[in-house]
Amino acid sequence: MKTSRDNHQADHWKLRGSPAGIHIFNRTTGLNVLIYEIPVPSSLYSRAPRHVSIALTNRCNLTCDHCFVPKSFHELPYDTVICWLHELDANGTLGVGFGGGEPTQYPRFVELCRHVAREMQLSVTFTTHGHNIDESMADKLRGSVNFIRVSMDGIGHNYESIRRRPFDKFIAHMKLVRTIANFGINFIVNEHTLLDLDNAVAIAADLGSCELLLLPQMATRKCPQVDNDTLKGLRKWVETYRGTMRLCINEGYAEGFSICNPTAPEQGLRAYAHIDAAGVLKLSSYDATGMPIGSEGIMSALDRLAHKHQEKET
Length: 314
What we know:
Elements: E1 14-18, E2 21-26, E3 31-35, E4 51-55, H1 78-90, E5 95-99, H2 109-119, E6 123-128, H3 135-141, E7 147-151, H4 156-163, H5 167-177, E8 182-189, H6 197-207, E9 211-216, H7 228-240, E10 246-249, E11 272-275, E12 280-282, E13 291-292, H8 298-313
Parallel strand pairs: 4-5, 4-11, 5-6, 6-7, 7-8, 8-9, 9-10
Antiparallel strand pairs: 1-2, 2-3, 11-12, 12-13
Protein backbone atom coordinates (compact mmCIF):
# COMPACT_ATOMS: atom_id res chain seq x y z
CA MET A 1 0.00 0.00 0.00
CA LYS A 2 1.23 3.50 -0.86
CA THR A 3 1.56 5.73 2.18
CA SER A 4 0.93 9.45 2.30
CA ARG A 5 4.65 10.14 2.69
CA ASP A 6 5.35 8.32 -0.58
CA ASN A 7 3.41 11.12 -2.28
CA HIS A 8 4.93 13.89 -0.15
CA GLN A 9 1.51 14.21 1.51
CA ALA A 10 0.57 16.21 -1.59
CA ASP A 11 -3.13 15.44 -1.48
CA HIS A 12 -3.52 16.09 2.26
CA TRP A 13 -5.58 18.98 3.54
CA LYS A 14 -4.36 20.66 6.69
CA LEU A 15 -6.80 22.11 9.23
CA ARG A 16 -6.19 25.03 11.52
CA GLY A 17 -8.46 26.45 14.22
CA SER A 18 -8.33 30.13 15.17
CA PRO A 19 -10.49 33.13 16.13
CA ALA A 20 -11.05 33.59 12.38
CA GLY A 21 -12.70 30.18 12.02
CA ILE A 22 -11.66 26.85 10.57
CA HIS A 23 -8.89 27.28 8.01
CA ILE A 24 -8.41 24.44 5.51
CA PHE A 25 -5.28 24.52 3.35
CA ASN A 26 -3.79 22.44 0.55
CA ARG A 27 -0.13 23.25 -0.02
CA THR A 28 0.02 21.62 -3.47
CA THR A 29 -2.75 23.65 -5.06
CA GLY A 30 -2.40 26.65 -2.76
CA LEU A 31 -6.14 26.56 -2.12
CA ASN A 32 -7.28 28.15 1.15
CA VAL A 33 -10.78 27.67 2.53
CA LEU A 34 -11.90 29.65 5.59
CA ILE A 35 -15.12 28.53 7.28
CA TYR A 36 -15.85 31.54 9.46
CA GLU A 37 -19.49 30.66 10.15
CA ILE A 38 -18.45 27.94 12.62
CA PRO A 39 -17.08 29.41 15.86
CA VAL A 40 -13.98 27.61 17.13
CA PRO A 41 -13.61 27.13 20.91
CA SER A 42 -10.45 28.80 22.19
CA SER A 43 -9.28 25.42 23.50
CA LEU A 44 -9.03 24.27 19.85
CA TYR A 45 -7.05 27.25 18.56
CA SER A 46 -3.80 26.19 16.91
CA ARG A 47 -0.91 27.21 19.15
CA ALA A 48 1.65 28.05 16.48
CA PRO A 49 1.53 31.02 14.06
CA ARG A 50 -0.16 30.51 10.70
CA HIS A 51 3.10 31.34 8.91
CA VAL A 52 6.69 31.48 10.14
CA SER A 53 9.65 32.97 8.28
CA ILE A 54 13.14 31.73 9.07
CA ALA A 55 16.38 33.51 8.19
CA LEU A 56 18.59 30.46 7.69
CA THR A 57 21.77 32.49 7.24
CA ASN A 58 22.89 36.10 7.16
CA ARG A 59 25.27 35.34 4.31
CA CYS A 60 24.55 36.91 0.93
CA ASN A 61 26.70 37.45 -2.15
CA LEU A 62 25.01 40.79 -2.90
CA THR A 63 25.39 44.05 -0.96
CA CYS A 64 22.17 46.02 -1.46
CA ASP A 65 21.93 49.32 0.43
CA HIS A 66 18.29 48.79 1.42
CA CYS A 67 18.97 45.39 3.06
CA PHE A 68 18.23 45.45 6.79
CA VAL A 69 19.79 42.03 7.56
CA PRO A 70 22.77 42.27 9.98
CA LYS A 71 26.12 41.78 8.28
CA SER A 72 27.15 38.88 10.51
CA PHE A 73 28.10 35.25 10.07
CA HIS A 74 25.13 33.83 11.97
CA GLU A 75 23.69 30.64 10.52
CA LEU A 76 21.15 28.24 12.01
CA PRO A 77 22.15 24.60 12.62
CA TYR A 78 20.33 22.25 10.26
CA ASP A 79 19.18 19.77 12.94
CA THR A 80 17.85 22.61 15.10
CA VAL A 81 15.79 24.01 12.23
CA ILE A 82 14.35 20.55 11.56
CA CYS A 83 13.27 20.21 15.20
CA TRP A 84 11.60 23.63 15.17
CA LEU A 85 9.75 22.84 11.94
CA HIS A 86 8.39 19.56 13.28
CA GLU A 87 7.12 21.44 16.36
CA LEU A 88 5.47 24.11 14.23
CA ASP A 89 3.93 21.55 11.89
CA ALA A 90 2.43 19.63 14.80
CA ASN A 91 0.96 22.80 16.33
CA GLY A 92 -0.90 24.21 13.34
CA THR A 93 1.54 26.24 11.25
CA LEU A 94 0.55 26.08 7.59
CA GLY A 95 3.67 27.38 5.89
CA VAL A 96 7.31 28.24 6.37
CA GLY A 97 9.23 30.86 4.40
CA PHE A 98 13.00 30.51 4.19
CA GLY A 99 15.04 33.67 3.83
CA GLY A 100 18.28 35.22 4.92
CA GLY A 101 20.57 36.71 3.84
CA GLU A 102 20.28 34.56 0.79
CA PRO A 103 18.79 31.13 1.63
CA THR A 104 20.30 29.43 -1.40
CA GLN A 105 23.71 29.98 0.25
CA TYR A 106 22.64 27.85 3.21
CA PRO A 107 24.82 24.70 2.95
CA ARG A 108 21.94 22.18 3.17
CA PHE A 109 19.19 24.26 1.63
CA VAL A 110 17.99 21.72 -0.94
CA GLU A 111 18.09 18.93 1.65
CA LEU A 112 16.03 21.06 4.04
CA CYS A 113 13.32 21.77 1.46
CA ARG A 114 13.15 18.10 0.51
CA HIS A 115 12.85 16.99 4.13
CA VAL A 116 9.96 19.37 4.81
CA ALA A 117 8.15 18.26 1.64
CA ARG A 118 8.59 14.58 2.47
CA GLU A 119 8.13 14.48 6.25
CA MET A 120 5.81 17.40 7.04
CA GLN A 121 2.63 19.09 5.86
CA LEU A 122 4.09 22.58 5.76
CA SER A 123 4.02 24.66 2.60
CA VAL A 124 7.58 25.66 1.62
CA THR A 125 8.40 29.10 0.24
CA PHE A 126 11.65 30.99 0.01
CA THR A 127 12.77 34.50 -0.87
CA THR A 128 15.78 34.88 -3.15
CA HIS A 129 17.61 37.32 -5.40
CA GLY A 130 17.63 34.50 -7.93
CA HIS A 131 21.23 34.73 -9.09
CA ASN A 132 22.37 31.50 -7.41
CA ILE A 133 19.70 29.35 -9.06
CA ASP A 134 21.17 27.33 -11.91
CA GLU A 135 19.80 24.31 -13.75
CA SER A 136 21.21 21.89 -11.18
CA MET A 137 19.59 23.63 -8.20
CA ALA A 138 16.31 24.04 -10.08
CA ASP A 139 16.23 20.31 -10.82
CA LYS A 140 16.88 19.45 -7.17
CA LEU A 141 14.26 21.84 -5.78
CA ARG A 142 11.48 20.93 -8.17
CA GLY A 143 8.68 19.15 -6.30
CA SER A 144 9.87 20.29 -2.85
CA VAL A 145 8.92 23.98 -3.01
CA ASN A 146 5.41 25.42 -3.24
CA PHE A 147 6.10 29.10 -3.91
CA ILE A 148 9.11 31.36 -4.53
CA ARG A 149 9.47 35.08 -3.89
CA VAL A 150 12.06 36.79 -6.08
CA SER A 151 13.42 40.25 -5.31
CA MET A 152 13.44 42.47 -8.41
CA ASP A 153 13.42 46.02 -7.00
CA GLY A 154 13.37 48.08 -10.17
CA ILE A 155 14.17 47.28 -13.78
CA GLY A 156 17.09 47.97 -16.11
CA HIS A 157 19.47 50.60 -14.77
CA ASN A 158 17.60 50.98 -11.47
CA TYR A 159 17.85 47.25 -10.82
CA GLU A 160 21.55 47.21 -11.70
CA SER A 161 22.31 50.22 -9.47
CA ILE A 162 20.66 48.43 -6.53
CA ARG A 163 21.71 44.82 -7.10
CA ARG A 164 24.98 45.47 -8.98
CA ARG A 165 24.15 42.60 -11.33
CA PRO A 166 23.10 42.74 -15.01
CA PHE A 167 19.33 42.88 -15.42
CA ASP A 168 19.42 40.50 -18.39
CA LYS A 169 21.16 37.90 -16.19
CA PHE A 170 18.37 38.31 -13.66
CA ILE A 171 15.79 37.62 -16.37
CA ALA A 172 17.69 34.49 -17.41
CA HIS A 173 17.62 33.18 -13.83
CA MET A 174 13.92 33.99 -13.57
CA LYS A 175 13.25 31.65 -16.47
CA LEU A 176 14.75 28.87 -14.35
CA VAL A 177 12.86 29.93 -11.22
CA ARG A 178 9.51 29.55 -13.00
CA THR A 179 10.28 25.90 -13.77
CA ILE A 180 10.53 25.12 -10.03
CA ALA A 181 7.22 26.45 -8.69
CA ASN A 182 4.78 29.35 -8.89
CA PHE A 183 6.51 32.60 -8.02
CA GLY A 184 5.89 36.22 -7.13
CA ILE A 185 7.97 39.39 -7.35
CA ASN A 186 9.14 41.38 -4.33
CA PHE A 187 9.51 45.04 -5.25
CA ILE A 188 11.18 47.68 -3.05
CA VAL A 189 9.41 51.01 -3.66
CA ASN A 190 11.37 54.25 -3.42
CA GLU A 191 11.40 57.51 -5.39
CA HIS A 192 13.35 55.87 -8.24
CA THR A 193 11.69 52.47 -8.52
CA LEU A 194 8.15 53.91 -8.28
CA LEU A 195 8.57 55.03 -11.90
CA ASP A 196 9.39 51.45 -12.94
CA LEU A 197 6.16 49.89 -11.65
CA ASP A 198 4.24 49.76 -14.94
CA ASN A 199 7.14 48.18 -16.83
CA ALA A 200 7.93 45.91 -13.88
CA VAL A 201 4.38 44.53 -13.93
CA ALA A 202 4.60 43.91 -17.67
CA ILE A 203 7.93 42.09 -17.35
CA ALA A 204 6.80 40.08 -14.33
CA ALA A 205 3.58 39.04 -16.09
CA ASP A 206 5.50 38.02 -19.19
CA LEU A 207 7.74 35.82 -17.03
CA GLY A 208 4.71 34.18 -15.41
CA SER A 209 4.63 35.85 -11.99
CA CYS A 210 1.32 35.59 -10.17
CA GLU A 211 1.94 38.25 -7.50
CA LEU A 212 3.65 41.60 -6.95
CA LEU A 213 4.55 42.31 -3.32
CA LEU A 214 5.07 46.04 -2.77
CA LEU A 215 7.65 46.83 -0.11
CA PRO A 216 8.00 50.54 0.67
CA GLN A 217 11.66 51.11 1.50
CA MET A 218 12.64 50.83 5.15
CA ALA A 219 15.45 52.94 6.59
CA THR A 220 18.88 51.33 6.92
CA ARG A 221 22.31 52.72 7.63
CA LYS A 222 22.79 53.33 3.91
CA CYS A 223 19.38 54.51 2.73
CA PRO A 224 16.42 56.51 4.06
CA GLN A 225 12.86 55.40 4.66
CA VAL A 226 10.49 55.92 1.75
CA ASP A 227 9.28 59.54 1.67
CA ASN A 228 5.65 60.66 1.90
CA ASP A 229 5.48 61.89 -1.70
CA THR A 230 6.53 58.45 -2.94
CA LEU A 231 3.91 56.80 -0.73
CA LYS A 232 1.25 59.12 -2.15
CA GLY A 233 2.42 58.20 -5.64
CA LEU A 234 2.25 54.52 -4.77
CA ARG A 235 -1.31 54.85 -3.45
CA LYS A 236 -2.34 56.61 -6.66
CA TRP A 237 -0.69 53.89 -8.76
CA VAL A 238 -2.49 51.15 -6.83
CA GLU A 239 -5.82 52.95 -7.13
CA THR A 240 -5.50 53.15 -10.93
CA TYR A 241 -4.00 49.67 -11.38
CA ARG A 242 -6.05 47.51 -13.74
CA GLY A 243 -3.73 44.56 -14.26
CA THR A 244 -4.55 40.94 -13.53
CA MET A 245 -1.54 40.20 -11.34
CA ARG A 246 -2.36 40.09 -7.61
CA LEU A 247 -0.99 43.03 -5.59
CA CYS A 248 0.15 42.72 -1.96
CA ILE A 249 1.81 45.19 0.39
CA ASN A 250 3.94 45.09 3.52
CA GLU A 251 1.57 45.08 6.50
CA GLY A 252 3.43 47.98 8.09
CA TYR A 253 2.39 50.26 5.22
CA ALA A 254 -1.09 48.85 4.59
CA GLU A 255 -2.90 51.86 6.06
CA GLY A 256 -4.41 53.96 3.29
CA PHE A 257 -4.54 51.07 0.82
CA SER A 258 -7.59 48.99 -0.03
CA ILE A 259 -6.76 45.54 1.30
CA CYS A 260 -8.49 42.22 1.82
CA ASN A 261 -7.66 40.31 5.00
CA PRO A 262 -10.09 37.42 5.59
CA THR A 263 -8.12 36.23 8.64
CA ALA A 264 -8.13 39.62 10.38
CA PRO A 265 -9.29 38.14 13.74
CA GLU A 266 -6.08 36.07 13.75
CA GLN A 267 -3.51 38.67 14.69
CA GLY A 268 -0.02 38.98 16.14
CA LEU A 269 1.76 35.74 16.92
CA ARG A 270 -1.30 33.75 15.89
CA ALA A 271 -0.73 34.98 12.35
CA TYR A 272 3.02 35.36 11.93
CA ALA A 273 6.43 35.07 13.56
CA HIS A 274 10.01 35.42 12.40
CA ILE A 275 13.17 33.60 13.46
CA ASP A 276 16.46 35.34 12.69
CA ALA A 277 19.75 33.64 11.85
CA ALA A 278 20.90 33.92 15.47
CA GLY A 279 17.92 31.84 16.65
CA VAL A 280 15.90 34.75 18.07
CA LEU A 281 12.11 34.63 17.72
CA LYS A 282 10.54 37.98 16.76
CA LEU A 283 7.17 39.49 15.95
CA SER A 284 8.55 40.52 12.56
CA SER A 285 11.81 40.50 10.63
CA TYR A 286 12.15 44.25 11.24
CA ASP A 287 12.13 43.97 15.05
CA ALA A 288 15.45 44.67 16.76
CA THR A 289 14.74 42.43 19.76
CA GLY A 290 12.93 39.19 20.44
CA MET A 291 13.04 35.96 22.43
CA PRO A 292 16.01 33.58 22.09
CA ILE A 293 14.86 30.03 21.36
CA GLY A 294 16.40 27.77 23.99
CA SER A 295 16.77 24.02 24.30
CA GLU A 296 13.13 23.72 25.40
CA GLY A 297 12.03 24.41 21.83
CA ILE A 298 10.15 26.93 19.76
CA MET A 299 6.69 26.55 21.33
CA SER A 300 8.09 27.54 24.71
CA ALA A 301 9.75 30.58 23.12
CA LEU A 302 6.46 31.51 21.45
CA ASP A 303 4.63 31.36 24.78
CA ARG A 304 7.27 33.54 26.44
CA LEU A 305 7.29 36.09 23.60
CA ALA A 306 3.48 36.27 23.62
CA HIS A 307 3.48 36.83 27.39
CA LYS A 308 6.15 39.53 27.11
CA HIS A 309 4.26 41.29 24.31
CA GLN A 310 1.01 41.14 26.28
CA GLU A 311 2.69 42.68 29.33
CA LYS A 312 4.12 45.45 27.15
CA GLU A 313 0.69 46.29 25.73
CA THR A 314 -0.93 46.44 29.17
